[in-house]
Amino acid sequence: MQNKIITIILISLFIFPLLSLGQNKFQPVFDHSLMAERDYFSQNVSKPETSLRVLAVMVDFQTDNDSRTTGDGHFDLRDTSKKFLDAPPHNRSYFNQHLAFLKNYYEKVSDNVLNVSFELLDSIYRLPHEMKYYSPIKSSKNNVELGNLVNDTWKLVDSLAVASLHPIDYQQYNTFIIFHAGVGRDIDLASLYGYDPTPYDIPSLYINLKSMRTMFNDDNYAGIALDSGRFHVTSSMILPETETRDQVPFPLGINGLIIASIGSHLELPDLFNTINGSSAIGRFGLMDGQSIFSWNGAFPPEPCAWEKQYLGWIKPIEIKSSDSIFTFPAKSLTGSSDTTFKVNINSEEYFLIENRNRDANGDGAIVTMIVGGDTVRKRWLRDTSNFNAIDQDSLYGTIIDVDEFDWSLPGGVDSRTKTFYDGGILIWHIDENIINQNIASSTINADANKRGVNLMEADGSPDIGQSYDLLHPGSGSESGTALDFWFAGNSAPLRKYDTTGFTPTSYPSSNSNTGANSHIYINRFSERGPRMSARIKIGDEQISLLPQFPKSVGKNFKCNSITALGYDPGNQGLIVSANPPVDTSNFVYQSPAIYGWKFDGSSLITGVDSTPLPLSLQYLNARFTGKIAVHDFSRDLISDLVISVNSDVPGSYLLGWSLADTDLDNKLDSLFSPFFVAREISTSPVFSDSSIAYGTKNGSIYFVKSDGNITGAVSLNVFDSTEIVGLSLLSNNSFIALSAKGDVRKIYNNGTVSELKNYGHSLNAPAASAFLSANSYWADVVGQCIAFASKDGYLFVVDSLLNVLNGFPVATGGEINNSPAIGDVDGDNIKDIVVFSGSKIYAVNATGAYLDNFPITVSSQKPILTSPIIADVNGDGLVDIVAVTQEGIVVAYNSQGRMVNGFPLLSGPNSGSTPAVFYMDSLCLSCIDIGLAVGSDDGFVYAWKTGGMVTGLIAPPVMPWPQYLHDAQNTGMSAEVSAPISKSDNYLPAERAYNWPNPVTAADNFRTHFRFYVKENSSIHFKIIDPAGDLVNQFDTNGIGGIDNEFEWDASALQSGVYFVHIEAGGSSGSGYSIFKMAIVR
Q: What does 57-69 look like in DSSP terms, one character per residue?
């Protein structure tokens, strides 16, 4: 990050009177970021800092009479009879008092987690240069002048200490503060006067080791060497004696600046918009310019819930599946624990909910000040004309303590109703993805539309950070208002008319930043008070998390997909393999693991811990490959699972277990001894009734019996050892194998093979196979169909002899990264083929024609890596298509191209782990619930109930392709067939005859698609008639009955105009015709 000075717009806010929510006409503008340069990354602090040991020093400069700096380079040591905030003399006692405020603040708001001690050196140290020398220009890229100030300060301190024979033991300090003479260059005076009258004042910054290395252009710089090199100062805070200047019409304190600078030292990131300087969290937390000058710098509010969590001071109470009333004691309530609740959208995005109250103890604001050496303690029961966020004339001297720092929150007294607005519940939307991506550049909240730490403003208007004119209705709300708290009786207009609370449909809403539906409801807020209550409901009638989900496994799923087990009672559940991340820096390798749960979240095997399943794995750097195959292979009524593992030493193995522990050794029973493979296994295992098959990276396919003995092996291409990228079942003894170079072959488990075919495109995923319909043409003429896709975007469908069907391949124009799926999408009982290409969902019928409403574009900037799921996810009896984007957005679309109600959902990042849809027992005895589960790269398995249906005598939900490779056996084959359903009683219905695109233009190279439907297999004759009635073209084709037919036609020979397209169809039992218009535009 460049070391540049950034503006923070500060708008003092006060609710006095409530009508305007209070706005000071003068708007102090904080002039830069608090930290010169970031050198850390986002992470929750597991061991919070417990001790601040401060060494502070006062420095001044050589005398100057430069009008471009404030003062003459020396501290203002005059005694004054005037009473105002941070009044002089600015001597050692003055700075000790500010350090006392620092100690009182941090020990109180951390609940004594952080202990603060300090020492201020006795002398004022005079630097060798004038102030101008140490002041960087605002466009400085490295702020080396500030580096010189820090270096000169500590070198001077050290040399004089040595010379006086009183060396300083620097080892006892971990925090270093430089108080310099003069005013901080922290107020944007240019916004007031059109220019900066004192451009050579010194900005207040926290400087760490990384910024020092940038300043001095030395990547190996170790810090400022003191005590003969035995100690190095690696960070310092540069702070002014005051922020009050003649050009500002009221005094400004430095307490807020000191506290925020220590926040930077504790590695809290800036939470304002560091691009344009505007506020982002208002006066509801610490690291925002509005809090630095809250109450004009007298005292800031407490850190917000996320800041305390980040510092490790609190551990929020995590709520998973709930519909309960929760109690929220205020943060500053004496004798109560700091209770913050956390409600997850996914592992990286969540809400933090806290109660903040300005006067939780009901004793008013008690402020302790030092005035002329005397300690003065004052109490205000409410805000008054001289004690409010705008006017602090009642505050003077140096403030050293406030009993409740949250008095600095937005609020006050409504002059009309006399209502004292003292806080309420705050809801914070936290997105760790945004935080992690932007923390190093200090831009966590730079995007007002997607902030990493975002306050859900209860008044419904996202005012924080806005810049309104004085006459704008939102004027005065730019740093937050008393109506941004959630509480019963909130008088904001939107809350009056929308009493549902914080929901997926409210404004603001509880949905994810991705737009995914969170199904989170927070409502029934109590009235404002030190103890409040609210209802938190996770899930609704549409969608809810399954019990005990999401499950944390702490490992990556990558392309390994979830297997949903059978649906017989006692045999319902989910099972998935996961591989750990590799720490290559330390060469630390963990073992992979297999996890299994019943749909209720309990252990998959009674009496056996399922997190993970107890296995015996002793292979160096082992990695599971593909999806687990589950089948009762040993025919003992106990499910068996098989998966391959690749390892550095001794090689690859096929492993198998029974889902039982009959010998009570607390490990799964082995199905067979590990089967060694000399080559790396490259596919998921596939079960047939008699064998297990899998492919390898050297082009071989192996077949193994239930006892682990090999029954056969065959090469896909004896002249080529290209990797096998897909293996699927065709029948009990035959498989379809695909190689990366485009070879496709039928393989039999007795070692025989069919003719080899190559389709000229690289392949990267298994095929899907099915009989498309019970219709005699599809069942007898075409036979079993095989669908596969190339990485460069072509969808192939071939017959049982591997001949490409008419209408294929279909060019999608995008990148296809996974297998197609087969199932009847449009309800005509003829199976369709679905594939994801780029970020689009393609669904085509058996003739290669796009289904109506397809393709569908999914909202994602990246190509989809999962394979399609075709299943009824909501219980309406119609199939839906499910995809998961790389961002983790789970979408479900129906055949009309519409998002299923309650979707999209949010899981974690996805690298190709395909979800699974399943049905399960319901609390309703005559009902079936529908579930959906997916593994994510954040180390979590997410699972939801997405629907349900009353069954009775009705068949279970329609799930033609419910998981990767179709089923738990990984067959990749859909065997069920049905008689087709006619879409029309007409032989050639006019409503299904048209061309697209229409009009035909150069944008499509003057190519169009003719589409038509015929009742039975027919001969088709096309005639193209121009506007004058002349025949300009005619041609013949064939149409397949009971399905939409489509082919592409070149219209480039036609001139601009409207043409009539005549279609005549004839078959064995009838005929029909249709006419439609086609436009050509040149």
A: EEEE------TTS
pLDDT attached to residue 28 = 62
pLDDT of the residue at 338: 66
CATH class for the region spanning 990-1080: mainly beta
Boundaries of every domain in the chain: 34-39+51-269, 316-540, 551-974, 990-1080
pLDDT tens-digit map of 46-98:
578 899 999 999 999 999 999 999 999 999 999 887 889 999 999 999 999 99
* 412 Cβ neighbours under 8 A, 6+ residues apart: 14, 15, 16, 18, 22, 382, 383, 388, 389, 420, 421, 482
pLDDT, tens digit (0-9, with 9 covering 90-100), for 283-331: 999 999 999 999 999 999 999 999 999 999 999 999 988 899 999 999 8
- For the stretch 137-189, pLDDT in tens is 988 888 999 999 999 999 999 999 999 889 999 999 999 999 999 999 988 77
CB 788 within 8 Å of CB 991: no
- The closest alpha carbon to 805, from 1012, 980, 1045, 996, belongs to 1045
Residue type, 247: Q
Cα–Cα distances in angstroms (integers) from residue 1015 to residues 983, 996, 1040, in the given order: 8, 21, 8
DSSP-assigned states of every residue in 93-140: HHHHHHHHHHHHHHHHHTTTSSEEEEEEEEEEEEPSS-GGGG---TT-
**Cβ atoms within 10 A of the Cβ of 532, count?**
25
CATH class of the region 551-974: mainly beta
Note whether 376 and 370 are within 8 A (CB).
yes
The answer to pTM > 0.70 is yes
| Span 214-228, pLDDT tens digits | 999 999 999 999 999
Q: Check: CB of residue 557 under 8 Å from CB of residue 937.
A: yes
Among the ranges given (506-510, 650-654, 692-696), the one the predictor scored with the smallest mean pLDDT = 650-654
The answer to whether the 551-974 and 990-1080 domains have the same CATH topology is no
Identify the CA nearest to 772 among candidates 746, 818, 808, 747.
Answer: 808
The pair of structure tokens assigned to 27 is 């708007």
- Residues 148 and 982: their CA atoms lie apart, in Å, by 84
Alpha-carbon distances of 641 from 574, 575, 658, rounded to whole Å: 12, 9, 6
Q: What are phi and psi of 47, to 5 degrees?
A: -120, 95
Average pLDDT over residues 6-16: 36
3-class SS letters over 695-745: EECCCEEEEECCCCCEEEEEECECCECCCEEEEEEEECCEEEEEECCCEEE
